[in-house]
């Protein structure tokens, strides 16, 4: 049989390999379809092989010819795979993902992500397979020996999320990515028969993002992770501006566009005069309003403030600047790393001042919370005027 049918260790790897097998048979299924299948499998685990076949076919089949050929190809692939493996292991790999004893270490996770596995589809699979290892762990609790590995993983994770965030799906006339929802709706209007497939394609979003990141002393435990995340986003998004602030404001977007993150860090060190110092949010936002407001605000701009809200400035100045931002942007988001802690309440003066103006308050204490932020931005794209 073709060399594409070989033993793998878990279901995500088998999905990737099966898609490659189909591509060799003339199917048009790439990383986008593979990722969509994996997302479905995170919410639904088929109990029968037939259910698994129907799930794969719903995403990977694009036309009538493929629809007719798919059952035989599915049967051939998974039957040969069972012959190559122990029967019990093969049955488990088809029906549900396997779980290893104990969570892999960050070093193992980094090796899986970067050691000879550089294609986008393999990065996606690695992140789906290992996300539960680190996504819920608070950034402030990482041991020093774990930090370096975690930071490199976070940069790659940010780029993958940014690729998803800057796109939205629109209807397409040519065969490509199957729009299952519209296909089913169309068939329902015709008595349940599928007479034609509906397709969708990605379209660049017009949304712009302006970010203010607090680099004062109280944010030290989180800033090193947040900057890695912002760097990953800047490597993909061209509609993003980033400012950092302590007692003063500094635009750092050019530094985050550097090819290497080490170069970005060096430039950031030269640009920011008050790193790990005090905090004056109102004064910093006033500087932005005076120097950059007309350029980086607008009805399609989402403003994000990353800060724990421990502010030494005057509350009335902060109130005036937040009122200005609220009136000159599409949406105002405040991300507070402390908001992820059990029992957190926004009781500082700055947070009480900000709440009336904030459209969405989230945390940024772990990867899960950053994913929630990206999902919030992604959902907001569909409300763009």
Write a structural description.
This protein has 385 residues and is an alpha/beta fold. It folds into four domains: 11-95; 106-165, no CATH class; 167-204, no CATH class; 208-381, von Willebrand factor, type A domain (Rossmann fold). The protein contains 17 helices and nine strands. It has helices at 11-24, 31-43, 49-60, 64-84, 87-95, 106-114, 120-134, 144-165, 180-188, 220-234, 253-256, 261-271, 281-291, 293-296, 315-327, 349-354, 367-381; strands spanning 167-172, 177-178, 199-204, 208-214, 240-245, 249-251, 298-306, 329-335, 360-362. The strands form two sheets. A six-stranded mixed beta sheet has the order 6-5-4-7-8-9. Helix 6 (106-114) packs across helix 8, helix 7 packs across helix 8 and helix 8 runs parallel beside helix 10 (220-234).
What gyration radius follows from the Cα positions, in whole Å? 24 Å
DSSP strand tally: 9
What form results from the Cα inertia axes?
elongated
What percent of residues adopt helix (DSSP H or I)? 40-55%
| Overall structural domain count | 4
Q: Architecture of the largest domain, according to CATH? A: 3-Layer(aba) Sandwich
Top CATH class of the largest domain: Alpha Beta
Q: What fraction of residues sit in β-strands?
A: 5-15%
Give the N-to-C terminal Cα separation.
53 Å
What is the CATH topology of the largest domain?
Rossmann fold
- Strand order of the biggest β-sheet: 6-5-4-7-8-9
Mean pLDDT: 75
In this structure, how is the largest beta sheet organized? Answer: 6 strands, mixed
Runs in which pLDDT lies below 50 for 5 or more consecutive residues are 86-132, 381-385
| Helix-strand pattern | HHHHHHHHEEHEEHEEHHHHEHEHEH
Task: Assign the CATH superfamily of the largest domain.
Answer: von Willebrand factor, type A domain
- Can you count the helices? 17
Give the helix/strand class.
alpha/beta
């Amino acid at each position: 049989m073709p060399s594409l049918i070989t033993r793998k260790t878990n279901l995500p790897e088998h999905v990737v390999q099966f898609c490659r097998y189909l591509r060799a048979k003339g199917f048009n299924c790439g990383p986008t379809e593979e990722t969509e299948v994996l997302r479905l499998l995170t919410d639904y685990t088929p109990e029968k092989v037939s259910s698994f076949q129907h799930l794969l076919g719903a995403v990977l089949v694009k036309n009538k010819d493929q629809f007719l050929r798919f059952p035989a190809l599915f049967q051939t692939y998974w039957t040969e795979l069972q012959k190559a493996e122990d029967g019990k292991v093969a049955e488990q790999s088809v029906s549900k993902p396997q779980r290893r004893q104990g969570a892999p270490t960050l070093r193992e996770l980094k090796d899986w992500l970067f050691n000879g596995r550089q294609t986008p589809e393999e990065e996606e699979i690695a992140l789906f397979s290992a996300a539960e290892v680190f996504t819920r762990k608070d950034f402030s609790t990482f041991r020093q020996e774990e930090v370096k590995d975690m930071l490199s993983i976070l940069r790659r994770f940010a780029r993958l999320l940014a690729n998803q965030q800057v796109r939205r799906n629109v209807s397409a006339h040519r065969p490509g990515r199957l729009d299952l929802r519209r296909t089913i709706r169309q068939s329902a209007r015709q008595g349940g028969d599928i007479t034609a497939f509906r397709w969708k394609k990605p379209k660049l979003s017009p949304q712009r993002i302006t970010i203010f990141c607090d680099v004062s002393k109280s944010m030290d435990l989180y800033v090193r992770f947040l900057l890695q995340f912002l760097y990953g986003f800047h490597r993909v998004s061209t509609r993003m501006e980033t400012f950092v602030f302590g007692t003063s404001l500094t635009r750092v977007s050019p530094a985050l566009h550097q090819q290497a993150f080490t170069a970005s860090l060096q430039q950031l060190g030269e640009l920011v005069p008050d790193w790990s110092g005090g905090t004056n949010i109102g004064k910093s936002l006033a500087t932005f309003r005076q120097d950059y407001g007309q350029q980086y605000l607008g009805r399609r701009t989402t403003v994000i403030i990353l800060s724990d809200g421990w502010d030494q400035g005057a509350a009335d100045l902060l109130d005036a600047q937040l009122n200005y931002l609220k009136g000159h942007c599409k949406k105002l988001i405040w991300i507070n790393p402390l908001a992820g802690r059990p029992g957190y309440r926004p009781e500082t003066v700055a947070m009480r001042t900000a709440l009336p103006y904030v459209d969405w308050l989230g945390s940024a204490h772990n990867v899960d919370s950053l994913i929630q932020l990206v999902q919030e931005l992604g959902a907001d794209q569909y409300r763009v005027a």
